[in-house]
Write a structure and sequence with these properties.
- The structure is a single chain.
- The protein is mostly helical and 240 residues long.
- The protein has one domain (2-104, 112-122, 130-235).
- The chain is 73% helix and 6% strand.
- The chain has eight helices and two strands.
- The chain has a two-stranded antiparallel ribbon.
- Helix 1 (2-15) packs parallel to helix 7 (168-203) and helix 2 (19-31) crosses helix 7 (168-203).
- The longest helix has 36 residues, at 168-203.
- The chain starts with a helix and ends in a 6-residue tail after the last helix.
């Protein structure tokens, strides 16, 4: 049993590195001038939504003997792809409003120096904007994205495993452990992305703008690719 649960944790940890998951979290970290802790929070909230949906699916499978067809799974993947495209377009919109300015200060008796500060909005700079009031709305988005990912490929993966586990209790524990692994993996991934963006932010305003633009392009590309792949597999294009 221990081996099964450990395997579930490791699979969950690796599952967080799926291409669509990376693309989604890129938009959250890049759209919000986040600290490492805040970026990890996005990953954790994503993981909670992801794990909650997996638990719902698992309970329905074990109690209602639910069967999820391939068409439904591909349809959910298609919806996830649409979500990625929307996230990428929203990031492009925010990048178009980026405002860069500098702050001058000195430490003790050292010479006066300046550092670059980036706002993901075009409004005038006021101290209150450093509080990032949009943080709560981003957390809600991260939770929704986690729900969507949990209802797509992750659910299909869990269903395959549950078919090999006879004990319902062990099945529930497996889903929990898998969810914990995926949450931890996403939190670590978010922190790594945040560190790289923060380094670019300290070096040059142009560099941080380029990297954030690259994040939007990557997410959009992944979303479009998955949309075509999932739509074709679900037969959506043949119905048009």
């Amino acid at each position: 049993m221990i081996e099964t649960l450990l395997l579930g944790f490791l699979i969950g940890l690796w599952h967080a590195m799926d291409l669509d998951h990376i693309a989604a979290i890129l938009t959250f970290v890049a759209a919000d001038n986040s600290s490492r802790l805040r970026s990890m929070t996005y990953g954790i909230i994503w993981g909670l939504g992801h794990a909650t949906m997996l638990m719902i699916v698992a309970l329905m499978v074990m109690t209602l003997d639910l069967q999820i067809g391939d068409e439904f799974a591909w349809l959910m993947e298609f919806l996830v792809a649409i979500m990625l495209v929307v996230l990428a377009l929203d990031l492009f919109r925010r990048l178009a409003k980026v405002k860069v300015h500098t702050h001058e200060h000195q430490h003790d008796a050292t010479a006066l120096h300046a550092h670059v500060h980036v706002h993901m909005e075009s409004t005038a700079h006021v101290p209150e904007r450093h509080a990032h009031r949009h943080y709560d709305s981003y957390l809600g988005r991260a939770l929704l994205v986690g729900f969507m990912h949990g209802s797509a490929g992750s659910a299909a993966l869990i269903l395959l495993v549950l078919q090999t586990i006879s004990s319902k209790v062990l099945g529930i524990v497996y889903v929990i452990v898998f969810g914990v692994g995926a949450t931890l993996g996403m939190a670590l991934l978010s922190a790594i992305i945040s560190v790289q963006l923060h380094r670019s932010h300290l070096r040059s305003a142009q560099l941080t703008r380029v990297l954030r633009s690259c994040a939007a392009v990557v997410t959009l590309s992944v979303g479009l690719f998955l949309m075509v792949k999932a739509g074709a597999s679900a037969g959506l294009f043949t119905m048009i």
